From TrEMBL:
<dbReference type="InterPro" id="IPR025049">
    <property type="entry name" value="Mfa-like_1"/>
</dbReference>
<keyword id="KW-0732">Signal</keyword>
<protein>
    <submittedName>
        <fullName>Fimbrillin family protein</fullName>
    </submittedName>
</protein>
<dbReference type="Pfam" id="PF13149">
    <property type="entry name" value="Mfa_like_1"/>
</dbReference>
<feature type="signal peptide">
    <location>
        <begin position="1"/>
        <end position="26"/>
    </location>
</feature>
């Protein structure tokens, strides 16, 4: 009789351990109430997305802002910074979710968010503030991103007390503009070095300066309209070749304020080692364009000692824009 009781006790312990092991499975909901958990961050590229985890390090930190469904700042620490370390995302002071929360995210991380009662919260941005200028490789140009739900593609992302594990897909608020600049066969014996390229907008559809990014829509506000953006680097000129498979000049720009019908590019090229001050100027004919957030526009320009021509334009990489994906011969 004693052995039977001992056997029953052992079986009961085994069943209890099994139940505990099952209840702690990785796929089960988190216990109600507790810190927000970030399970993944993706960056929207091309037709799909690339997970930014161990193998991809483009985004290793984001800011997260939490509000109630009534657009009131959430709890005592609604603002936090999550960082990717050892294949997982963590925050020093994650918000504690005890009721439904609306979550907004951005990159690069910021020190604070400007709260709006209607939920259109913003963060500061700065786009080509130095007289609308940058170098040939977009050095020090931040790529502003805002977070949406991977499922719906919309912001904000919702967390609840029983579903505190969330993920974000980060979308681009800027456009990327690149150039494949080559020299013609007639200049094959000459050394041509690009020292400057001006992007000229006849109806001032370009934008630069300081402003804000809406965390719900990614829309930029407060920038100044301009007719000129300048990319220059006389200290590190681009040596032009006859063949150029990939872009040799790139920059990040704010979306245009509308369709530009008089867009042209003015290049300054140093020939055979002459000084940058004496560089030759080449200007393309005008084309139409409307640069949009999240799109990558690639222009090919051919330069010789007589002038420059825009031989083609295509849309590449982040997204494809069928309306502007056309070849332009000049």
């Amino acid at each position: 009789m004693k052995n039977r009781k001992a056997h029953k006790g052992t079986m009961g312990a085994v069943l209890l351990l099994a139940a505990l092991f099952t209840s702690c499975g990785a796929d089960d909901p988190l216990p109600a109430g507790g810190p927000l958990r970030l399970t993944g961050v993706e960056v929207e590229t091309g037709e799909g997305s690339a997970a930014t985890r161990a193998a991809v390090t483009t985004v290793e930190a984001i800011s997260v802002y939490a509000t109630t469904e009534a657009h009131v700042a959430y709890g005592s620490n609604p603002f936090s910074e999550y960082r990717l370390q050892n294949n997982s995302w963590s925050a020093d002071a994650a918000p504690v979710i005890i009721a439904n929360a609306l979550l907004y995210a951005c990159h690069p991380p910021v020190v604070g968010v400007t709260h709006q009662a209607d939920g259109n919260h913003t963060v500061p941005v700065s786009v080509m503030t130095t007289a609308g200028a940058t170098d040939f490789l977009a050095t020090d140009q931040p790529d502003y991103l805002y977070g949406v739900s991977p499922a719906s593609g919309l912001a904000p992302v919702t967390a609840t007390s029983g579903a505190r594990a969330v993920s974000f897909r980060m979308k681009h608020a800027l456009a990327k503009v690149s150039f494949r600049i080559v020299k013609s066969a007639s200049a094959n014996k000459d050394k041509l070095e690009l020292v400057q390229i001006e992007i000229q907008s006849g109806t001032s559809r370009l934008q630069s300066g300081t402003g804000t990014m809406n965390l719900k829509t990614g829309v930029l506000n407060g920038l100044s309209s301009t007719s000129l953006l300048t990319l220059a680097d006389a200290a590190r000129p681009v040596v032009l070749k006859e063949q150029q498979a990939t872009p040799n000049v790139s920059c990040l720009t704010a979306p245009m304020t509308g369709k530009e019908t008089v867009l042209s590019f003015r290049l300054k090229v140093r020939i055979n080692g002459e000084s940058a001050e004496n560089a030759h100027a080449f200007e393309t004919k005008s084309v139409s364009a409307e640069w949009k957030a999240g799109y990558h526009y690639v222009y090919q320009i051919t330069v010789d000692k007589m002038g420059g021509s825009l031989s083609s334009v295509k849309i590449d990489d982040w997204k494809s824009d069928a309306n502007q994906n056309t070849s332009i011969g000049i």
